[in-house]
Structures are given as C-alpha cells and as structure tokens.
Amino acid sequence: MDTHFLHSDSMFSAVLWKDLKGVNNKSISSSIKKFCKYTRPEMEALSSEVDLLYLLGVLNSSMAGKLLADQRGGDYHIYPEHIRNLPIPIATSKQQEEIARLVRVIMEKIHGGQDSETEQQKVNQIVSALYI
What we know:
GO molecular function: DNA binding
Strand content: under 5%
Helix content: 55-70%
Keywords: DNA-binding, Restriction system
Order of helices and strands: HHHHHHH
Oligomer: single chain
Number of helices: 7
GO biological process, one term: DNA restriction-modification system
C-alpha cells in the first residue's frame, strides 16, 4: 500500500474510490455511469469506511471462492464483472480490523516462507459468519 505498482493493460488491480479522489478520466467516469448506483462523491465516502486489507481477506476467503465459482460456472477466468457482482459483507470497524490484522500476519508468514493455514482458517470463519 506504500508502494507504487506498474502493470500492463492485461492486468487488473483494485483501488478504493477514496484513493482515486482527484483522478479524473473517461474510464472512471464511464465506469461510474455504467456500474454504480451511487455518485462518485458517495462512492468515495463509502470507501473511506473500508479497510483495503479487509477486502483482501474477504476476496481470498473460501466463501468468496465459492461465490466466484458459482458465478463463473466452471470457467477458470475471473473477469471484472465477477468481482463487481461479488457481494461484500458489511462489517464493523472491529471486524474489519481483526481480518486486516490476520491478513497482515498471513502476508508476513507467506513472505517468510511459513505456513499461514491457521490464520487463513480464522479469516474464513469470520468472513463466513459475516455472510450469514
């Protein structure tokens, strides 16, 4: 999150709306018109309540995997519309903080070549409970 990333046009990345404040281009404007039921200022305000590591935890959870598999219908590709259609559960700041903390531990362990299965299982449990 403190690093700048470069990637080709064949790659996708996720950025919170609040982090796009002040960035204006046709792609962003057309995406808002096409896919959002909220205005851009509303999207920026809503995203200020979301921890990016919480989203990472949700998107890498077993529940999200099941939901994405259902949407894809056997196709192994994941397209932007799959992510757009994935329901993200509303979590309290405390729940988001716990998932974000576990995600940090998982990333540190993976970077260090250690097993992170225990932490991933905990993330899966918390996220699954949020979908109920």
